[in-house]
Amino acid sequence: MKILMVVTNYDKFKWQICGDLKVIALLLGLQGFTKYCCFICEWDSRDRSLHYSTKDWPARKSLEPGIMNVENQPLVELSEILLSSIHLKLGLTKNSAKAMNQEEAAFT
User: Fold this and answer.
1) Interatomic CA distance for residues 108 and 102, integer angstroms
2) pLDDT tens, 25-82?
3) Secondary structure (H, E, C), the chain
4) Chain centroid to CA 40: how far?
5) Would the pTM count as exceeding 0.70?
6) How far is Cα 41 from Cα 68, in angstroms, rounded to an integer?
7) Which residues, at least 6 apart from 102, have a Cβ–Cβ distance to it below 8 Å?
8) Domain extents in the chain
């Protein structure tokens, strides 16, 4: 990704970046498929008992390598990232379907 940023002259143009959550996490230096995979908050992906009961997760304080699954220095500023609305809608729909009682007549 760093080579791609150099080849496209990102430092010169300072474009805003829009991508799916995995690409954004990669650009921000996060490891993939880890315990703390969200770049916005400290959501614990492995604590399944809290996924639908906890509504407010603490905000991520920094993107410092070595802390909370940050592996590398971020390649872009967090303020330069635009979230893709289609990916958010698909994720919300998927999580809503998972949270529903799948034995109900409305679900089937």
Assistant:
1) 7
2) 888 888 766 666 677 777 666 677 776 677 677 777 778 887 777 888 888 888 888 8
3) CHHHHHHCCHHHHCCCEEECHHHHHHHCCECCCCCCCCCCECCCCCCHHHCCCCCCCCECCCCCCCCCCECCCCCCCHHHEEECHHHHHHHHHHHHHHHCCCCCCCCC
4) 7
5) no
6) 10
7) 108
8) 2-99
